[in-house]
Amino acid sequence: MPQSNKMTMYDKIWANHIVEDRGDGSALLYIDRHLVHEVTSPQAFDGLRASGRTVHRPDSIIAVPDHNVPTKDRHLPNPDPMSTAQLDALEANVKDFGLDYIPVDDARQGIVHVVGPEQGFTQPGVTLVCGDSHTSTHGAFGALAFGIGTSEVEHVLATQTLLLRKSKNMRVTVTGEMPTGCSAKDVALAIIGALGTAGGTGYVIEYAGPVIEGLSMEGRMTLCNMAIEAGARAGLVAPDDKTIDYMRGRPYAPKAGQFEAAVPFWKALSSDEGAVFDKEVMIVGSEIVPQVTWGTSPEDVVAVTGRVPAPESFSDPAKQEAVAKALNYMGYAPGTGMTEFPIDRVFIGSCTNSRIEDMREAAAVIKGRKVADHIIEAMVVPGSGLVKLQAEEEGLDRIFTDAGFQWRDPGCSMCLAMNPDKAGPGEHVASTSNRNFVGRQGPGSRTHLVSPAMAAAAAIAGHFVDVRDF
Amino acid sequence: MKKFTEIRSIATPFPRVNIDTDIIIPAKHLKSIKRTGFGDHAFETIRFEADGTPIQDNVFDCDRYKGASILVTGDNFGCGSSREHAPWAISELGFRCIIAPSFADIFAGNCVKNGILTVALPQTDVDALVLAAEAGHKICVNLPNQTVTCGNAHYEFDFNSAHKQMLLDGLDEVGQTLKSAAAISTYEDKQKLTTPWLFKA
Ligand code: SF4
Fold first, then answer.
1. Closest CA to A430 of A399, A451, A400, A409
2. Sign (positive/negative) of CA torsion A85, A86, A91, A97?
3. What is the ipTM of this complex?
4. Residue A343: helix, strand or coil by DSSP?
5. Are B34 and A42 inside 8 Å of each other by CB?
6. In CATH, what is the architecture of B6-170?
7. A126 and chain B: CB distance < 8 Å anywhere?
8. pLDDT, tens digit (0-9, with 9 covering 90-100), for A223-264
9. Most distant CA atoms of chain B, gap in Å
10. CATH 3.20.19.10 residue ranges in chain B?
11. Is the pLDDT of residue A395 over 90?
12. How far is the CA of A145 from the centre of ligand 1 (A)?
């Protein structure tokens, strides 16, 4: 621990939430906000029931189904019995315990990590949890947000706390300016490429510097969403005027009168000038170029102008073996140029990139063009019903469908392929999601993580292209 | 979670070694979204034919051992997967204590979380308890003293002290945290003043 009375943003939020200090760096920490979805909650609610307990603070929860919902033909009966059972269980649980609930047929329904911010439920300075690892997304608001397992979901429901050990502080500063043709996703991938997927293990990462300050709230969410892919417990961005403007007027945001009191509290959250971080990383923003992953881990990333590396180019023998395995799975030879990759399928969606700004970014590339003939399926899955409506108001849906994209209903969809949205074995997918693990988008599927603009351009060209000259 | 101090009950003898969690609860029943309802499928292959007809005279369903809260079984009980469904299923059959020469670690840990006491005794003692169970004698298991008695026979067993406290208090992890309920509510009172917007009026 750095010896200083200057505190980082993480130190402040942590200190604000200590219920009981248990010594040796661990504490019983108070949890302000809890997002609940259909897949990781049923056994937690059942556990409460089995032990005769109740939900400690129903007003700290929003429940919304997203992981296993169909993204088309929602007016028809749900063909998947498991999905039906999970949705029914969620509905029964929210009734039993009296929770705020956004059902599948509600315009506000969508991916938990899109819905929370959109509803103003995610706020600066809060602790926020959800039974999903990409809960780090909410760090974009200066909230300490992280994913938890089902037994912890039950623990939070019953006690509003978690027993946690404090992580270390890391600051990643992105200097300079955001280059044209790049977006928050490219920054996120470039950072993971620099840190490695274990580089953030044991840390909470604060993102800082002019490039981060220049990002919209949507961009900051994309960035923090992938903090977990660098192994970090959570990501954080200091609240500023953009954050405050975003909060204003949202349904769960502080009401008039309270809002004015909240603003100075939020502004005081930023790390103190001179606060010491356990680790500092600098990234030169102006050197970032559009990124594409070639392997089966988000750290397997290169510039679109680059080539697939050879296993021998790494010094660590374990890494060499992992690279050889990844190349074998992906079906590429070392040295293949990234733009030589033919693509079979395109997925624009997930809690990383399914917000209105992502829709606009993709549509701008697609406008007036057509999806390449050999693409099996190209789909856009908006992150929430409200994103979908907004996009339709702006006419973006027409741009997508005219080009040959499918325009779906909101949900996690092909990000984790739990519902029927899957890629087939061996298919290469240009995907705006966050994980390119073996089989993540369907057994045998080969995922390439990219920004919405890069995914859109790949759909048109049929292979990856440098979106800067597209 | 129910407190565990002492139980006195007839016991079900099931002296088979290496009973794994697949035998306790087959994987095909894990799809459930609940943590109850596994009792019907507990030890399924021992209780039912493949076509679902009940197997006559199996120890889990026969009248002789009805109401037993103790299971006396073989070495390395509970090996295999980490599924917590195994203790859930056993608990639903009415067992609160399992006596065996040894237990798989994860299984034993899962038992504590679910209020089940696992007693490890030397093989010869377990053999004697199997005979006593078959004869329909009552067995008494006392956790505070860490003893098992049956007729004139008396045995002592080792048990992890932290786990012992959880069972004696009847507290799982949530229960443990709820000991801090006063601190939690003090914290909330303070937060209602400093960040009132985080509480619904
Ligand atoms: S979109 Fe993907 S990463 Fe995000 S919450 Fe859903 S499954 Fe998790």
1. A451
2. positive
3. 0.93
4. coil
5. yes
6. Alpha-Beta Barrel (3.20)
7. yes
8. 999 999 999 999 999 999 999 999 999 999 999 899 999 999
9. 67
10. 6-170
11. yes
12. 15
